[in-house]
Design goal:
The complex is a heterodimer of chains A (468) and B (486).
Chain A: H1 13-16, H2 25-41, E1 46-62, E2 65-83, E3 86-92, H3 97-112, H4 137-140, H5 144-160, E4 164-180, E5 185-201, E6 204-212, H6 220-233, E7 243-249, H7 251-258, H8 267-271, E8 292-294, E9 316-320, E10 323-324, H9 331-337, E11 359-361, H10 368-373, E12 377-391, E13 396-409, E14 412-416, E15 420-425, H11 426-429, E16 433-436, E17 440-442, E18 450-452, E19 455-465
Parallel strand pairs in A: 7-12
Antiparallel strand pairs in A: 1-2, 1-4, 2-3, 4-5, 5-6, 7-19, 8-9, 8-11, 9-10, 12-13, 13-14, 13-15, 15-19, 16-19, 17-18
Chain B: H1 2-14, E1 19-35, E2 38-56, E3 59-65, H2 70-87, E4 104-108, H3 120-135, E5 142-158, E6 163-181, E7 184-190, E8 197-200, H4 204-209, H5 211-224, E9 229-230, E10 234-240, H6 242-254, H7 259-262, E11 292-295, E12 318-323, E13 326-327, E14 349-350, E15 359-360, E16 365-367, H8 374-379, E17 383-395, E18 401-413, E19 416-422, E20 425-429, H9 430-435, E21 437-440, E22 447-456, E23 461-469, E24 472-479
Parallel strand pairs in B: 4-6, 9-19, 10-17
Antiparallel strand pairs in B: 1-2, 1-5, 2-3, 5-6, 6-7, 6-8, 10-24, 11-12, 11-16, 12-13, 14-15, 17-18, 18-19, 18-20, 20-24, 21-24, 22-23
Classes of the chains: A alpha+beta (468), B alpha+beta (486).
């Protein structure tokens, strides 16, 4: 987050002049200073402000050509007031004096319109934060033309293989300031880039995706090659009967299922008795090879080192060797439970409380090829799709396989298979993990990015088959 | 606002755009929730900005900014042009747009009672009373309520000369009672799950929903579900309540008919569609009593898909999607219309806000009413299930195979509604399911349901869509698979 970081920006001369530029941090500080001055003039003594600026661009392609290509620059000021034991929030993207004044007056009016909240806490004071560096100047400077050229190369690969490519290449930067009238001040900025590609060969498809703070952490053409090779092997899938199968879930598939546990780890969810961990904390619930933490400081994670109230995020071991041990707490839920806040609260006011947003699932040493080699009969799953919760307490999830499902026989991948619907309890699944691979940052579409391993799981329940 | 529109179009034109359109949009939103007797969310937000879409060298570019100054919008237009030039590097064919008229118009959607003018105290008081009414039922462990109001003003201008201002209000509300007992969580929602009912209109919707009247009933049902029998795993006759049927339409008709999906433009994210172009006018999608339209006109009703013009300046239309069971039409845009032999867009390009590109979206995709009443439908059913209020939904990426579960079901035995069942679910293949429809209830029981949370596109856009439906009957449907262990 240091503006003096000595990395030479890589910009394309033709594109550079057209890219939007972020405001200097001093301008964001000026907005907060102005905000506090106006609040004081209105007699509002307990106030908080978030200033968030986003610059994002996305190159989207399909049928081997760019069909959508967009860029966006916006800034939001989100302010909160506390008036006589009541609180409310107003958000605007206008930063002029009259807009901030109107926002504060609206928030005060909204707050005054409700009953007193006996559980409302005063604003927190100054905090100390661990430094995290997640800003890549070359990524911030990535131009539309550079993205377009990478897409062109991926499309050329597809055409050379008789395939059709679709996907995105996005890049952007964001910066945030959070401050309150008790002297708390937190600032954070990051960059982010993402490449996702689906390769289609006839009716067969496959997919690969990566996401990182620095676009140099992944190779778009390399991802295109992975998807291309898998699509070539996915043609003419055979139909298998539904039932229970040993599965090898690639990291994206693990991510998309395990990610659905994230809110169950919220102390507020357990208090509200809607978490699958209600009545189960401290008991062996998963296999002893399952350990899950929340750790924003993990080198492959992104995100600010503080929560919606500005409380520093702590690393929390949520599941230790199969036993759910700890929850995450906002200041409010911590006070209710007699615990310390862990820095996972959402911006107030809200009814959800908190959640871990930087899950890290402990891995093992078995690579995917080794998992395949050790499987007599099973299925290799590239990706899952349209996952929804069927039963909240047993955590039964339904969804589909997508973009590459393959039969494994006698230690080898032998055949593509038609896609299945699954109805599978995550609790049961994490009791049936036979081995895990190394954990790395993964990205998919149903859950937010996590650090997860591939997993080999027995008795995974497929209930129906579709037509492709 | 027109000055910003005009200036950005001028800049785009001077820099080489052969076509451009621009939207200035102002959104205002209020969100209220309560949970177990306390106010949860109490937020109000506003956002204003400009997005410009251009064609340069035969390729698209789009840029958006919230810096509403002459310099700000000029820079935004210049950026859109630069992006379009970059797009042209990987272009296969030039963009072609179906011709469209030039319109100068202003339209305001229906809104009898402006929800932003209703005292907040009254809104919270209603929610807290409904919350209390649910908690008053023994066994309820969590009570939740919500209201959401949005006011959207948009100013559209194009290089062809159109200038269209539209103003509309969306309102929604819902309540949920949850009961945790033993090893199960059961819940009931009213008037619908996942945020309730949403319409194009004002506070009159909230008053019409009669939340206080229904709160005790759904709370009692949530508790009673613990004692109910498990939904069996079998094949049987299925009657779906209107709100669940609305979501069934959304997932298994609304999405497959989006022409951008059909053409592969969503292949990487939302998926494609089994409705390949060869199936137009050549597929028995449903039984002959099924008629489905995509109708954005106000004459269809105050839905979340109702407007006067879409976000590329095409007037609202009614499109036959399924006529007497036959597949008749896709949702199209100015760019895609010619691919299905149309000389005009179907007017379904919509954007979430000023910072997003318009894309093909559902409008109001509705099942037209039949002739039955719910009472006659049940009386005419010897053995079956009645399922109501969605609990989960999932469908494959080509929209063939689906599975839905609902909050509650009842057995139908000998033409009468019998015992309650818990954990109901059903599944099937889209065309097989719709071809098994043999009865649809009449217009007296038809409701234009609002789905406020339809996600699509990259970057993701959330859009409200409308789905008119009345209860309907389907034969030989597979039920109970979600909880099967086999």
């Amino acid at each position: 987050m240091s503006p003096t970081r000595k990395t030479r920006p890589v910009s394309n001369r033709r594109g550079a002049t057209s890219e939007a530029q972020p405001r200097p941090e001093r301008e964001l500080r000026a907005i907060t200073d102005n905000f506090f001055r106006i609040a004081k003039s209105l007699g509002l003594r307990e106030v908080e402000v978030h200033v968030d600026e986003v610059i994002e661009a996305l190159t989207r392609f399909a049928n081997n050509t760019i069909h959508q290509h967009v860029a966006e620059h916006g800034l939001n000021v989100s302010l909160r007031v506390i008036v006589d034991g009541r609180t409310a929030r107003v958000t605007t993207n206008r930063i002029e004096e009259d807009a901030l004044r109107a926002g504060l007056e609206s928030a005060a009016s909204l707050a005054s319109s409700q009953p007193k909240d006996p559980g409302l806490l005063p604003l927190p004071g100054k905090q100390k934060y661990r430094s995290v560096r997640r800003f890549s100047p070359p990524t911030a400077a990535l131009s539309a033309e550079t993205r377009a050229r990478a897409v062109k190369n991926a499309c050329a690969l597809a055409e050379s293989k008789g395939q059709t490519a679709a996907g995105i290449f996005s890049s952007g930067q964001s910066q945030s300031v959070l401050a309150n009238s008790r002297g708390l001040f937190a600032a954070y900025r990051q960059t982010q880039a993402e490449f996702s590609i689906t390769m289609q060969q006839g009716s067969a498809t496959s997919w690969a995706k990566a996401n990182a703070a620095d676009f140099r952490a992944f190779d778009p053409l390399g991802l295109a090659k992975i998807a291309s090779e898998k699509a070539a092997h996915a043609a003419n899938p055979m139909e298998l009967a539904p039932g229970r199968y040993t599965v090898i879930l690639e990291p994206a598939a693990v991510l998309d299922l395990v990610g659905f546990l994230f809110y169950d780890f919220a102390a507020t969810a357990v208090h509200d008795q809607r978490s699958c961990f209600s009545g189960r904390l401290g008991k062996l619930l998963f296999g002893q090879n399952i350990t899950i933490s929340d750790d924003v400081y993990h080198p492959e994670q992104l995100g600010a080192p503080y929560d919606g109230e500005g409380i520093p995020r702590q690393r929390v071991v949520l599941v230790e060797e199969g036993v759910p041990r700890n929850l995450v707490y906002s200041r409010r839920s911590a006070k209710q439970a007699g615990k310390r806040a862990t820095g996972h609260g959402f911006a107030l006011p809200n009814e959800h409380g908190e959640a871990p947003m930087n899950l890290v699932v402990g891995g093992g040493k078995t690579s995917i090829p080794e998992m395949i080699a050790g499987t007599d009969r099973g299925l290799l799953v590239t990706r899952l799709w349209y996952i929804r919760e069927v039963d909240p307490y047993e955590k039964i999830m339904t969804g589909m396989t997508r973009d590459g499902l393959f039969l494994v026989e006698n230690g080898k991948v032998t055949q593509p298979v038609r896609n299945f619907r699954f109805n599978q309890s995550i609790l049961e699944m994490l009791r049936n993990v036979e081995c895990l691979g190394p954990s790395h940052r993964a990205t998919a579409e149903e859950s937010f990015e996590m650090v997860v391993p591939p997993m080999k799981i027995r008795d995974f329940h497929f209930s129906e088959v579709t037509k492709f | 606002m027109w000055d910003y529109c005009g200036h950005s179009l001028d800049v785009a034109w001077r820099r080489g755009a052969t076509y451009a359109d621009v939207r200035v949009m102002y959104h205002r939103q209020r969100d209220l929730t309560t949970k177990s007797g306390e106010v949860g969310t109490l937020d109000q937000s506003e956002s204003i900005g400009l997005g410009i879409r251009v064609v340069v060298n035969g390729a698209w570019g789009f840029a958006a900014t919230d810096q509403l100054t002459r310099d700000g919008v000029a820079a935004c237009a210049a950026q859109a042009v630069a992006i379009a030039k970059a797009s042209a590097l990987a272009k296969k064919e030039d963009v072609q747009l179906a011709s469209e008229g030039v319109y100068v118009d202003s339209w305001q959607g229906p809104c009898q009672k402006d929800p932003f003018e209703i005292p907040l105290e009254a809104q919270l008081d209603l929610l807290l009373k409904a919350d209390a009414a649910m908690r008053g039922v023994k066994g309820v462990t969590l009570s939740e309520t919500d209201m959401q109001f949005r006011k959207i003003d948009s100013w559209f201008a194009s290089s062809s000369g159109s200038k269209i201002h539209q103003s509309r209000v969306h309102s929604g509300c819902g309540i949920v009672a949850t009961s945790f007992k033993g090893d199960a969580i059961q819940k009931r929602s009213y008037p619908n799950s996942f945020g309730g009912q949403h319409i194009l209109g004002g506070y009159e919707l909230i008053e019409a929903m009669e939340l206080l009247k229904h709160a005790p009933q759904i709370a009692e049902e949530a508790v009673a579900l613990h004692s109910a029998a498990q939904c069996p795993e079998t094949r049987t006759t299925l009657i779906l309540g209107g709100s669940q049927l609305g979501l069934q339409i959304h997932e298994s008709i609304g999405h497959p008919i989006e022409l951008d999906r059909v053409l592969g433009q969503e292949a990487n994210f939302a998926g494609t569609s089994f409705l390949t172009l060869d199936k137009l006018n050549n597929l028995r999608y449903a039984s002959s009593i099924v008629n489905v339209v995509a109708d954005a006109r106000i004459a269809h009703g105050p839905g979340l898909g109702t407007f006067a013009y879409d976000d590329e300046g095409v007037p609202a239309q009614c499109i036959d999607v399924i006529k007497d069971g036959e597949f008749r039409g896709y949702l199209s845009s100015r760019e895609t219309a010619h691919l299905i032999g149309l000389n005009r867009s179907g007017g379904t390009m919509r954007t979430e806000g000023w910072n997003r590109l318009p894309m093909i979206r559902m409008t109001n995709v509705s099942l037209l009413p039949g002739s039955w009443t719910p009472e006659l439908l049940i009386a005419d059913t010897d053995d079956g299930l009645y399922m109501d209020t969605n609990r989960s939904w999932s469908i494959d990426d080509r929209r063939y195979q689906f599975q839905f579960s609902t909050e509650i079901a009842w057995e139908i035995k000998g033409g009468k509604k019998a015992r309650m069942l818990k954990n109901p679910s059903y599944s099937g293949i889209t065309t097989e399911f719709w071809n098994s429809c043999d009865a649809i209830c009449n217009a007296d029981h038809w409701v234009l349901w609002g789905t406020p949370n339809c996600g699509k596109g990259q970057p993701m856009q959330t859009m409200g869509t409308g789905h008119g439906a009345s209860p309907a009957r389907f034969r030989n449907v597979r039920v109970g698979t979600a909880f099967s262990n086999e």
